[in-house]
Each structure stands twice: as structure tokens, then as C-alpha cells.
Amino acid sequence: MTQQDAGRVVMVTGASSGIGAATARCLAHAGITVVMCARRLELLEELRMTLPNAATHRCLAVDVTDAAAISDAITTTVAHYQRLDAVICNAGIGITAPIAEMDYHQFQQVLAVNVGGFLHIVRATNPVFKITGSGHYIVISSVVGQHALPYNGGYSASKAALERLCQALRIELRGSGIGLTVIRPGTVATEFFEHRIGPDGERRIAKSNGMSPNVVAQSVLYALERRPRVIYPRLRDRLMSICADIFPSLTDVVLARSITWQQKTGVDEMSSPVDSD
Ligand SMILES: NC(=O)c1ccc[n+]([C@@H]2O[C@H](COP(=O)([O-])OP(=O)(O)OC[C@H]3O[C@@H](n4cnc5c(N)ncnc54)[C@H](OP(=O)(O)O)[C@@H]3O)[C@@H](O)[C@H]2O)c1
Question: What is the pTM for the complete model shown?
């Protein structure tokens, strides 16, 4: 634990699984007090009991699409700890569908969580950060916010929108003492792929190795200490992003070959590996 970490209070949204849970663990082990938010309160409580100094951390049932619930969570946290040093904006969901078949309401659902959730957090937190002239937003975006993947256009669009909001907010926050870091993971091995929404009876089949959510959690810890603008937790993803900028047509060919969309034919296919972000 660094001197800086002692006494810090950090809120993590989407802490009930995957990257959020790994981040809560990582921060707690670094001596940081964690306020864990998600809809599944029982999972948060289970996680809290495994953390060092379990009694100091808090769990809050929050749906990030509910502006009032987020506002309550921020108020409760500040009232309880008398401080809030950072918010890890991590809660998110995916959607897989060919663009021409994507359900508009499902797309809106994704935007409500991935984009609307972030806006609600900023609206509720900024007044608190402004009072102290400090604070830090750490936003879990994705490599797909820079380059869309086929059959993931809806999700990619949500992360692209998130990225542009962050870009504007960073400029608006200049000189305020409030920081903003965007983290762009590639594929991470989490429940994310099971929770994705999309048309019934079909799924995208792709092969890819996901990194451990602990790698992203370490990036969050680094971001808290150093406040960089952007982090790619894995060098490979940074290099692929650069290649996609330089060779866009070649990138299209590679993606078209590596990610396909198949009609579901039976029970066996439900257990096929689907793990590309
Ligand atoms: N896995 C990847 O390959 C990958 C790659 C790049 C970026 N990401 C991003 O990383 C973030 C975390 O994803 P993950 O991979 O850790 O997936 P995950 O294991 O499915 O975790 C998603 C978290 O978001 C929470 N959540 C979902 N909808 C919510 C809502 N309406 N209100 C509050 N919380 C909500 C879930 O908690 P509850 O269900 O309990 O509410 C869960 O804790 C997401 O923003 C995702 O886009 C993931």
C-alpha cells in the first residue's frame, strides 16, 4: 500500500462479477476502501466477506440506468466516509447481432447501461469532486470503441459514444483537479459473453483468448496512481488498434474471416466457445 492509497474511498460499478469484482479485490488488497455497486447485492456481499478489512467496505444495490439510485449511492457514500476519491465506471453489457437485424429496443438497453449509466454517474459525482477540487473517473471502455467488430456493432457504438463523452469531459475538467482515465481492454475472460443480449436462436462464433480480469484490475490501480489519459491493459490490443488505423481494408478482411454469425442448430452449439470482444 502506498501512502496515497491509505484512507482512499473508491466506488466501483458492476462489481458483482468480472472486471469489477477483480478491481474491487485489487483495490482492497492495496488498502483502499471500496464501495461496490451492482444489481446483484448478494454477490457483492459474498465478495465483500472475502476482502481484507471486510467491515470497512460497503455494498450498494444500484442499477446504473436509474439516475436517482446513483445519486443516492453517491450521497450515501459521502455521508458515510466523508470522502470519495474516484469512481470506476465499469458496469456494462453487450449486444451481438448483425446490424440489419438488431432490435432497436435491445440497442437502447445497451446505450442506457453503457452510456446513460456513465452520464448519471458524472452528474451525481461531479458536484462532490468539485467541492474538493479532486477526484478521478476511471472508465472501462473497450478496444471496440476505436474499431468496430462485426456482429458487435451495437456494443461498439455504445463504447464509441462513451469514448467521445469522455474526450469532451476531459477537456471540460481541465484545471479542475478532477482526472479522467479511459481503459481499453481487448477480450477479457468474464461472464460478459453469457450476459450479452441479441436475437434469439443465433450466436456469433469466434475464437480468441481472453486475458484475466486481474490484468484490467491492475491497470485500474495504475490509473489511480498515475492518472494517464488512456490505458490498453494488453500491448497486443494497442498494436492491433494501431494496425487497424494504418491498414483498414486488411483489418476488414481479417475480421470478416475470424468472426462469423451462425444460425443456432441445436443444444450442442449453445456450449460453443463465444469469447471475443
Ligand atoms: N469481457 C470483455 O471482453 C470486455 C472487454 C472490454 C471491455 N469490457 C467492459 O468491461 C466492463 C465489465 O464487463 P465484464 O467483462 O466484467 O462483464 P461481467 O462479468 O458481465 O460484468 C458486468 C458487470 O456490470 C454489472 N451491470 C450490468 N448491467 C448493470 C446495470 N444496469 N446496473 C448496474 N450494474 C450493471 C453487472 O452486475 P449486475 O448484473 O449484478 O448488476 C456486472 O457486475 C463492461 O463495461 C464491458 O463492456 C469487457
Answer: 0.93
